[in-house]
Amino acid sequence: MKGSAVATALTLGASTVLAAPSIQARDDVTAITVKGNAFFKGDDRFYIRGVDYQPGGSSKLADPIADADGCKRDIKKFTELGLNTIRVYSVDNSQDHDECMNALADAGIYLVLDVNTPKYSLNRADPAPSYNDVYLQYIFATIDKFANYKNTLAFFSGNEVINDGPSSKAAPYVKAVTRDLRQYIRSRNYREIPVGYSAADIDTNRLQMAEYMNCGTDDERSDFFAFNDYSWCDPSSFTTSGWDQKVKNFTGYGLPLFLSEYGCNTNKREFEEVSALYNTEMTGVYSGGLVYEYSQEASDYGLVEISGNDVKTLADYDALKSAFSKTSNPQGDGGYNKTGGANPCPAKDSPNWDVDGDSLPAIPEPAKKYMTQGAGKAPGFSGSGSMNAGTASTSTATPGSGSATSSSSSSGSGSSGTSTGSAGAAAGLQAPALTMTPVLVGLVTVLSTMFGAGLILV
Ligand SMILES: *[C@@H]1O[C@H](CO)[C@@H](O)[C@H](O)[C@H]1NC(C)=O
Ligand SMILES: *[C@@H]1O[C@H](CO)[C@@H](O)[C@H](O)[C@H]1NC(C)=O
């Protein structure tokens, strides 16, 4: 049903796009960067005010960014809600996304994108064979498609791969994928787009997973961490919901943190948590979040009901709109932690945290070439999948092995260092990076290694 609509939209999209200005050249879009434990838009703190956008629901595979008409229909509502970000769970990397991304940029809206699809993802029950070169090729090709949009805010390397204690065994693979994506972005000289993981709403190992993703060598750490949270069920409060504890427990965490899904629907939703999330009681540690979810699906979390070209707003839509409109961001920088940086790896504590140490699988041998050659062709949703394909990892990585390899194609245009390394203080280093000639890249590599932070161009 949806397929034909998408195809039409794409045909129309393709012809319009030729005339449209190239999105990467848009000077009016400011890319989001990481400083300390926060996001920034230029010199201003950036808080995610977003929704999760998956019309059709989690069980139906669709790419809403390739559906230009649907996207434009919904942008009107995003704007009315006062959003600055949407999250999309899967995209077909063989399709064109210019028209929707351009329209989102016009509306001041950024995209947080999950790079995985059901056919190209890690298998939590048996992660080793699923971490292979065919899988990496797909997700690298997705990076190629989205890296040049300045309103691509961030990539999720995984979503709820770990959903209980025992599945924490898969954590080294999640972390290896995150490392590889970050290395790919640097090796291909793209803008340094933040990469991180979206964790399930589970108390037993949320903190360990967050710490795990931010321990070890700089190439192995994430740029941010996010988790899904349904613990605030109206009527509630900062303390009743336990959000006060989630601030306390994450105080001192060195990466930007946000809620990748929130909005408990047990009772009537008033979205009272919005006033807590953008209040200084939380903004020293959290950078906003994404409400689950835009469209009404079987799970009953929707803000609107979509039927064809019509969008009917529901009671939850009005409640959220009202909550956003009466909640402004804190003055100044919201009390963020300018230092940021790594933490020690969590200790093994099975069955809740069944990971010993922090050694990671090395990148599968045949995937190494993508770092220098690029990923090439994008298989899209119709690709044959990666679960049991390709070649798996055969060895353990040497810490630091995920540093980017020098790319001969460096134009100095995209590889400004931000949040890698010791995460903090990097924004000031971007300007020199932009003017760098390829000849200087080697020197900068050495300097950045010496100074630790920021300028990771290796
Ligand atoms: C906070 O940390 C304490 C101590 O580690 C733990 O018992 C508690 O469950 C955590 N609370 C939340 C909400 O994560
Ligand atoms: C800021 O972050 C650093 C590094 O994670 C941490 O050591 C320090 O305690 C944090 N400061 C505050 C006030 O949270």
From TrEMBL:
EC number assigned by the record: 2.4.1.-
Compartmental location: Cell membrane
Membrane-crossing segments per the record: 439-457
SUPFAM superfamilies hit by this protein: (Trans)glycosidases
Membrane topology of the entry: Lipid-anchor; GPI-anchor
Gene3D superfamilies: Glycosidases
Annotated region described as Disordered, given as residue ranges: 326-425
BP-aspect Gene Ontology terms: fungal-type cell wall (1->3)-beta-D-glucan biosynthetic process; fungal-type cell wall organization
InterPro entries linked to this entry: GH (IPR017853), Glucanosyltransferase (IPR004886)
Pfam families: Glyco_hydro_72
Highest taxon in the source lineage: Eukaryota
Signal peptide: 1-19
Keywords: Cell membrane, Glycoprotein, GPI-anchor, Lipoprotein, Membrane, Signal, Transferase, Transmembrane, Transmembrane helix
Cellular compartments per GO CC: plasma membrane; side of membrane
Bias (Low complexity) ranges: 384-425
Entry GO MF terms: 1,3-beta-glucanosyltransferase activity
Family indicated by similarity: Belongs to the glycosyl hydrolase 72 family.
Entry function: Splits internally a 1,3-beta-glucan molecule and transfers the newly generated reducing end (the donor) to the non-reducing end of another 1,3-beta-glucan molecule (the acceptor) forming a 1,3-beta linkage, resulting in the elongation of 1,3-beta-glucan chains in the cell wall. Involved in cell wall morphogenesis.
Protein's name in the database: 1,3-beta-glucanosyltransferase
Organism encoding this protein: Aspergillus sclerotiicarbonarius (strain CBS 121057 / IBT 28362)
